[in-house]
Amino acid sequence: MKLMLLDTASLYFRAFHALPTSITAPDGMPVNAVRGFLDLLGTLITRFKPSHVVACLDADWRPAWRVELVSTYKAQRVDQTTPDRESAPEALGPQVEILLEVLYALGVTTASAPQYEADDVIATLATRATQTGDRDDQVDIVTGDRDLFALVRTRTAASPAVRVLYPVPSVAKLVVMDAAEILSRYGVPPEQYADVATLRGDPSDGLPGVAGVGEKTAVRLIGEFGSLSQLLAASQRDDPRLRTSLASKLRQHQGYLEAAARVVGLVRDVPLPDIDGVVPAALADQQRVIELAERYNLVNPIRRCSKALYD
Predict the structure, then answer these.
(1) In which domain, by residue range, is 163 found?
(2) DSSP string covering 163-188, please?
(3) Residues 244 and 176 in one domain
(4) Of all helices (H) and strands (E), which one includes residue 7?
(5) Same structural domain for residues 109 and 224?
(6) How many CA within 13 A on the CB side of residue 245?
(7) pLDDT 10s digit of each residue in the chain, 311 long?
């Protein structure tokens, strides 16, 4: 099995910003994100030839349980007119429903779960694959979110490798992030990446981290102490490897760091049903595909994507 997990929102956001909104349907509605996503999907299928594909979705982009842990989590992204929605470009919102309709008509599997983000769905499906697969299998996660680096694993005698296909700077280029590449770029193995992210913070997610602790310092500390929990334990006992001022700062932020670690951490046991995800052999709804292609000026991207899926 070659499983490909798509961080759908991450990819359509990038497609939206990579292509001009002058790409429109006959009625003038922008369809740049839909077109970019479909072309990317076709490229991924052609290049990596997965046997299974799942487009993972946010059923809840800002779960209440994460906000209860860290109240600022994604707070800067909240739509001021509709507080339960994420702020997004006006031209993007209507395209999301169109994209989901197209994926359904093409027969591409989607997956989501109440109270969880797409990252958690991806983490759960990747974990299932590593627990039940064999060394000849492969799991590829396509995302622009570095938090998912924590899922990367090398191949073992009993389980498959997990990689991230990372679009830098846009969906036009993909960097294959395996364990060696993450260690080379970020100075820590994948299993320590979440601790580094928690310590340094992530302003784009409303996570401040510890003031004065940037990525280089976070990498050094997690590398030296092995984990965030061991680092915090060292700060409590005034470990001589820590400057007094830094140990004091870590103690002051311990409550935040413990909560943020749960926010940053990926849920790997989301209650999902069994999900097949086999790459479809034919259109799920041919008539609907024809209607969508004509209505939204998507004939060519749907044709290219269909060729990649079914040929």
Answers:
(1) 2-186+266-310
(2) EEEEESSSTT-EEEE-HHHHHHHHSS
(3) no
(4) strand 2-7
(5) no
(6) 3
(7) 999 999 999 999 999 999 999 999 999 999 999 999 999 999 999 999 999 999 999 999 999 999 999 999 999 999 888 777 888 899 999 999 999 999 999 999 999 999 999 999 999 999 999 998 888 899 999 999 999 999 999 998 888 999 999 987 666 678 999 999 999 999 999 999 999 999 999 999 999 999 999 999 999 999 999 999 999 999 999 899 999 999 999 999 999 999 999 999 999 999 999 999 999 999 999 999 999 999 999 999 999 999 999 98
Contact 74, 61 (CB under 8 A): yes
Task: Copy the structure tokens of residue 3.
Answer: 């499983």
Are 149 and 259 found together in one domain?
Answer: no
Same domain, 237 and 302: no
- If asked whether residues 178 and 299 sit together in one domain, one would say yes
The tokens of 200 are what? 């340094």
**Structurally, how many domains does the chain consist of?**
2
Is residue 233 domain-shared with residue 276, that is, in the same domain? Answer: no
Q: Write down the pTM of the prediction.
A: 0.95
* Cα gap 136→1, rounded to integer Å: 8
Output the CA torsion 189→70→254→258 (10° steps).
-50
**Which residues are within 8 A (CB) of 17 and not within 5 positions of it... i.e. 6 or more apart?**
170
Which residues, listed in sequence order, are joined to residue 166 by a DSSP beta bridge?
175
CATH code of 220's domain: 1.10.150.20
Structure tokens, 265: 């951490």
| 51 shares its domain with 160 | yes
